[in-house]
Design brief:
Blueprint: H1 2-36, H2 43-56, H3 68-74, H4 98-109, H5 112-123, H6 125-143, H7 145-157, H8 159-165, H9 171-190, H10 194-210, H11 217-231, H12 238-259, H13 277-280, H14 309-324, E1 327-330, E2 333-336, H15 343-351, H16 354-367, H17 371-378, H18 381-395, H19 410-419, H20 426-441, H21 476-485, E3 492-495, E4 510-511, E5 520-525, H22 526-530, E6 546-548, E7 552-557
Parallel strand pairs: 3-4, 3-5
Antiparallel strand pairs: 1-2, 5-7, 6-7
Helix pairs in contact: 1-6, 1-7, 2-3, 2-4, 6-7, 6-9, 6-19, 7-19, 7-20, 9-10, 10-12, 11-18, 16-17, 16-19, 16-20
Length: about 575
């Protein structure tokens, strides 16, 4: 008996050491990537919008995302000396101001803005650790401690989690908070209580404050609750559960309103101005058309909104963005305001290490014949159903096919389902986890540009996807280092995916212009290389002399604007 207790105590201690180690490793990986990444395209807008919340209590800046992440990100700047430029700030403007304000913020602070951004990124580290901890806790509740540790390890070493978790955008924070909400709701479904209902409500509010996509919880949670009651054989108190479900929704909505400081809560529906087709009846372009409202002069006009004004306007703006679309690139093809039904499904497949898909499919297939495993998988439905709904809704909006990160709520589903069979296939699962980690770390710290080896790895990613899937302007610090290590490369011209002057990044070079014939070194963004309207497509026929990360090619250009063939290799990341 004593030996058994000793073994149990040792295993408990070893499991705790393992999960703490995973947290430390993940923090280190994300923190270092945060330091290495230059400002990405959206981050400058997020940081300015976060400061706008603290300074003006203005939630309209970057309204297409709720305020939680940007507010946390901007908090360290309250304690750091920095300059601000709000000369072009216009409260209540219908056009998006955050990118211009962000550019002014970074220009005002010069190279010091890179330190400011690192502080902002590091302040968001707890948000990605939430996802790791919930993967561990939910996995161990369903399938035991080893399964929880495997799921947490997938989160820890995922190139997608590391790459985007290093930024102050809301994608990974949203995945974490949505995972937390789904877990707490599942606990209430399995063991209804007032405590579980209150915690589920708090988690719902956090999810809604992190990512607009989680509005799918509102229609899905009632359906899951009704289905749970129908399928449950044990007697349950219907009246008590109804009241608890009301508590969940009420707590979530109230926390959402608190996050917006109740700004515009209770505004009559008819007083709001919208641009998207569902709320207007036609497409309207912000800045060129006056907002409208299809509920005016109807019986719904005077109904007070239970949600903050900017939350509703953010949903409307997001839908409008999807309707108007963008120039989209996929598998070597470009479309304007049009896209592909399988963009997100295919993109996910390419961006996730292959071995995880193998293990996920293995567990899913085994669940068809193994009732015990199938029951474990069913306990994940509060996460799987909303994630699949987000993937489906995104796929049905093909006008904006630019960012696979929109469907990252699917990732924790993959991690948990793949981990559920750990006890049954322990060695096979650990083998897959090891390959997963090696595949991810082989490209670190360029994790944002990760592509799996079904297409030959990230060196070939630009042939399939661009934008934030490959090149979001994150590798400019590595570009700066390459220029410093190659002084003979001058004069250097750069074409990159970003808004900031190169001086802000401490880079001694010029911005490349379309059609220039000057000799020298051209450092060309692979996003710009693939775009039809960039004017740099001719370099697709040229051989680069090297690369920086997986997002820039380097060319030597002579006077007739031809790139000289060379076997020279870049000193930066030739893996």
């Amino acid at each position: 008996m004593a030996n058994s207790e000793n073994r149990t105590g040792f295993h408990h201690w070893a499991h705790r050491v393992t999960i703490i180690s995973l947290m430390v490793v993940h923090t280190g990986l994300v923190a270092w990537a945060s330091w290495r990444y230059s400002p990405t395209q959206d981050e400058i807008g997020h940081l300015a919008a976060g400061l706008g919340v603290w300074k003006f209590q203005d939630f309209s800046l970057y309204r297409v995302n709720p305020p939680l992440v940007r507010t946390i990100a901007a908090a360290p700047l309250l304690f750091v000396d920095h300059e601000e430029d709000w000369s072009e700030y216009h409260p209540g403007a219908t056009i998006r101001q955050e990118f211009d304000l962000g550019q002014r913020l970074f220009v005002a602070n010069g190279t010091n803005s890179l330190w400011m951004l690192s502080l902002a990124r590091w302040s968001c580290l707890p948000l990605t650790l939430i996802g790791l901890l919930i993967c561990w806790q939910w996995g161990r509740e369903i399938a035991g401690e080893p399964a929880g540790l495997v799921a947490a390890s997938f989160w820890c070493f995922s190139p997608n989690i590391i790459g985007h978790g290093a930024l102050i955008t809301s994608d990974i924070a949203g995945a974490s908070c949505g995972l937390l909400a789904a877990w707490q709701f599942s606990r209430w479904l399995e063991r209804p209580s007032w405590r579980h209902a209150f915690l589920a409500g708090l988690s719902l509010g956090l999810a809604l404050l992190s990512k607009l996509s989680w509005v799918v919880f509102f229609p899905i949670w009632p359906m899951l609750w009704v289905s749970s009651r129908v399928l449950t054989q044990s007697p349950r108190d219907l009246k008590k559960e109804v009241l608890q479900f009301i508590l969940i929704m009420g707590t979530g909505i109230n926390l959402l309103n608190l996050g917006y400081l109740f700004d515009g809560t209770g505004t009559p529906i008819g007083e709001l101005g919208f641009y998207s087709t569902p709320l207007v009846g036609q497409k309207l372009l912000p800045g060129e058309n006056l907002p409208q409202n299809r509920f005016r002069a109807t019986i719904f006009e005077n109904i007070p909104s239970p949600f903050p004004r900017e939350f509703l306007l953010g949903l409307d703006a997001q839908k409008s963005d999807f309707e108007w679309g963008a120039t989209n690139y996929f598998l070597g093809e470009t479309k304007v305001a049009d896209g592909w039904l399988l963009y997100y499904v295919t993109g996910l497949f390419l961006k996730v290490p292959l071995v995880l898909w193998v293990l996920f499919a293995w567990n899913l297939r085994s669940g068809l014949n193994d009732s015990a495993l199938r029951k474990k998988q069913a306990r994940l439905l509060p996460l799987i159903v909303p994630a699949v709904a987000i993937l489906t809704l995104a796929s049905l909006q093909p006008n904006l096919n630019s960012h696979i990160r929109y469907v990252y709520p699917v990732l924790p589903c993959l991690f948990l389902v793949a981990a559920l069979g750990t006890a049954k296939w322990f060695r096979f699962t650990l083998f897959c986890l090891a390959l997963f980690s090696i595949s991810s770390l082989s490209v670190y710290p360029y994790s944002l540009s990760y592509f799996n080896y079904s297409i030959g790895g990230p060196s070939h990613g630009h042939k399939y996807l661009i934008d934030s899937n490959l090149d979001w302007g994150q590798d400019m610090i590595a570009v700066r280092e390459w220029i410093a290590e190659n002084p003979d490369s001058q004069p250097v011209r750069i074409k990159w995916r970003g808004f900031l002057p190169l001086e802000v990044l401490g880079i001694d070079a010029e911005l490349a212009k379309t059609g220039e014939d000057r000799s020298g070194t051209l450092i060309l963004s692979l996003h710009e290389l693939q775009r039809l309207d960039s004017g740099f497509q001719k370099f697709q026929r040229e051989r680069p002399i090297g690369r920086v990360g997986y997002s820039f090619n380097i060319y030597h250009v002579n006077s007739n604007n031809r790139s000289r063939n060379s076997t020279a290799e870049s000193k930066i990341n030739e893996n």
